[in-house]
Amino acid sequence: MCQERNRLKSDLEEAHMEIKKLRSGSLIISTDCLSSSQQSRSNRAVQFHLEKSIKICDTGCRVMAYSAHMNVLAISQPSSSALFPGFGIKKICTLDFKSTEYVSVHSNVVRDLAFKHKDADGLLLTASIDKTVRLSSLHSNTVVQTYQTGLPAWSCCWNANYPQYFYAGLQNGTVLVFDTRNTSAPTVELNTDGSKSPVVALQYVPWDSSAQFSLAGLLVGQLNKTYFYERKSDSEYRPHLLPLDGNLTSMTVEESSRHVLASFRPNATSPTVRHVMCELDAINVSDDPTVIDNAVTCHPVQTFNGGKSQKLLAKSCFASTLDGQLLVCAGDEASNSTIVWNTSTGHSVTKLPSSSPIIDVCSIKTETSCHLAALSDKFINIYTMS
User: Which helix (H) or strand (E) segment is 40 a member of?
Assistant: First the structure.
């Protein structure tokens, strides 16, 4: 009992020190670099206010995912109990940003998390180095299904059009397609003849007949290549190699604009971390006007440059304000901060300081509020955007 009390006291003191460090930085975004049309939407500057800093564990946090339907932020972490070793999920309630429960899920590191798209069933998909992907119910806090992958799983995502399907990206570059109605084996294997580099990111682009790029498919981001797998049917996917060069660390899709954000480590040709916002495009290359034969590519819209070092596979994200401004957010190892850029101007508009490198960022938006969560290996910092 005494040992546990001392540990809690130490954690509380560490959290107070973290908050003091963070609040010593400037958290106001200047409007000087915003366009007149953007400024007209709001007469005041967007501000980031540190609402809370929460210690999750001593070390080992890696990724997080947000469910608007459940008001839950799920964060991967190692177990803090010697009696129950392994890795699992810490639940944070986004109504009051209080830590609630720990859910044990895997026997090794969790590399990716994904909630179902616009679904309130509470199922969380997790990918792990333990060679499994698992479905866990965050209503009952239990693992409900385990799928064997044969190799370490690095990434995962759901099919946003057909939620019975999900995808797992493996260490050898293969992508497995699973059907939740078939628990014995994957239904399809993709990218088996391509690069053997690990699949560090998976993002599903849903069908949207009203969008300029309407096709449905799977973005497959490997360390050295990025593909769009056009979905033709439940069992048929057509690969399109995208002209994105570099050592990929992260990839995400903005739901309303369908823009893709791809982040790359520095290399010989680009000495800084790059976060490239691009738009997908489909071109009919058929000579027969009655036949549709799409070639899918992408075009850069903006490039946001970070620091000159990135050892970790840190993730970036889009975030939007209540007045409609679209931002890009990413951890920056060189400055131990989270950098925020305005997507209209391409300019860096603020840096949110941290005591250690930020490895994942997540936008939390409701009808009445906007927050940004920034995760290090032990803390999560919650900022209010106003």
Answer: helix 36-41
Band (pLDDT 50/70/90 cuts) for residue 35 is: very low
What tokens does 99 get?
A: 């830590």
Region of 107 on the Ramachandran plot (φ > 0 left; ψ -120 to 50 alpha; else beta): alpha
pLDDT value at 1 more than 70 = no
Identify which of 366, 311, 347 has the alpha carbon closest to the alpha carbon of residue 72.
366
Picking from 240, 243, 170, 167, the residue whose alpha carbon sits closest to that of residue 200 is 170
Mean pLDDT confidence for 34-38: 44
Contacts of 128 (CB under 8 A, 6+ apart): 87, 105, 106, 107, 108, 109, 110, 111, 134, 152, 153
Task: State mean pLDDT over 214-225.
Answer: 96
- Cβ(115)–Cβ(124) under 8 Å? yes
Residues of the chain with pLDDT > 90, as a percent, come to 76
Distance CA 217, CA 207 (A): 8
Rounded CA-CA distance 146/356 in Å is 34
Q: Is the dihedral of CA 192, 217, 259, 125 positive or negative?
A: negative
The first and second tokens of residue 238, run together, are: 């057509």
Token pair recorded at residue 298: 């992408």
Q: What is the average per-residue pLDDT within 242-250?
A: 96
C-alpha span between 373 and 378 (Å, rounded): 13
The helix or strand, by DSSP H or E, that contains position 179, with its residue range, turns out to be strand 175-179
- pTM, 2 dp: 0.88
Residue 4: its H or E element: helix 2-23
Tell me what pLDDT residue 29 has: 38
380 to each of 123, 149, 205, 372, how far by Cα in Å? 23, 30, 28, 10
Give CA–CA dist 159/161, Å, rounded.
6
